[in-house]
Design a protein that fits this description.
The chain is of the alpha/beta class and about 260 residues long. It is about 45% helix and about 15% strand. The chain has a seven-stranded parallel β-sheet with strand order 3-2-1-4-5-6-7, sandwiched between helices. Helix 1 crosses helix 8 and helix 4 packs parallel to helix 5.
Length: about 260
């Protein structure tokens, strides 16, 4: 089945690397125009735009810190000025922060994770909904994590932010559904990206990780991106308010395969 998003206008936050980059590429391959948001590494964002354009796609790079609501408002205004509006928002930008137990963590560092992962997703969703609700169509996809469900010692801000994004997704979906707008979350598990190279690049760490994954392998960014394209398309027109996990079965608690 050939999934097409021709004429759709998409925004991907944190779209210049890792999972966000793969999502931007897949959306463009499906025919969508893609605005690639970034806050650092502008050369990567502009290189990705050029790569998409070389494949006859349409893309542009837009700089904005998702934790700054004024910057986000200006970003959406610039996209609207260029393309007349949006149809798809992918809230991908996120950070995990430095590892520290709750009683040892730096308050400013903890707050920053919440500001980027939760408030950033809300600021972008708010701007998107102000445009999608009046046109009575559109899709918002929040990139969550298996850690909206699985605790992760040392990363309480990250897990709290992702659990909150799950409920934000459900609530916004409930609010927006009467207006023809869908809101969903996609929750990746262990995905092979540069940011977690220290895990999959080390044999010992990799073996420990694989024991947590029933499919016994790490996922590729494209496997997340392809699902995003499906959910953004009319093939998923009756799906909203849910988190879809892309985790090789990690949330299936593989240790229990050997008994309780």
């Amino acid at each position: 089945m050939n999934i097409r998003l021709d004429g759709k206008r998409a925004v991907v936050t944190g779209g210049n690397s890792g999972i966000g980059e793969a999502i931007a590429v897949c959306l463009a391959e499906a025919g969508a125009r893609v605005a690639i948001n970034y806050v650092a590494q502008p050369e990567a964002a502009h290189s990705l735009v050029q790569r998409i354009q070389e494949q006859r796609g349409i893309a542009m790079a837009v700089k904005a810190d998702v934790s700054d609501p004024d910057a986000i408002a200006k970003m959406f205004e610039s996209i609207e000025a260029a393309w007349g509006g949006i149809d798809i928002l992918v809230n991908n930008a996120g950070i995990d922060g430095d590892r520290a137990f709750g009683w040892e963590t730096d308050i400013a560092a903890w707050r920053k994770v919440i500001e980027v992962n939760l408030l950033g997703a809300f600021y972008c969703a708010r701007e998107a909904l102000q445009r999608l609700v009046p046109q009575k169509s559109g899709v918002i996809l929040n990139i969550s994590s298996v850690h909206e469900e699985i605790a992760w010692s040392g990363y309480s801000a990250y897990t709290a932010s992702k659990a909150a994004v799950a409920m934000l997704t459900k609530t916004l979906a409930q609010e927006a559904a009467p207006h023809g707008v869908r809101v969903l979350s996609v929750a990746p598990g262990a995905i092979k990206t540069p940011i977690n190279r220290s895990v999959w690049g080390d044999p010992g760490n990799l073996q420990d990780l694989l024991e947590k994954i029933p499919l016994k392998r790490i996922g590729d960014p494209e496997e997340v991106a392809r699902l995003v394209v499906v959910l953004a398309s009319d093939l998923a027109s009756y799906v909203t308010g849910r988190t879809i996990f892309v985790d090789g079965g990690m949330t299936d608690y593989p240790d229990f395969a050997h008994g309780g």
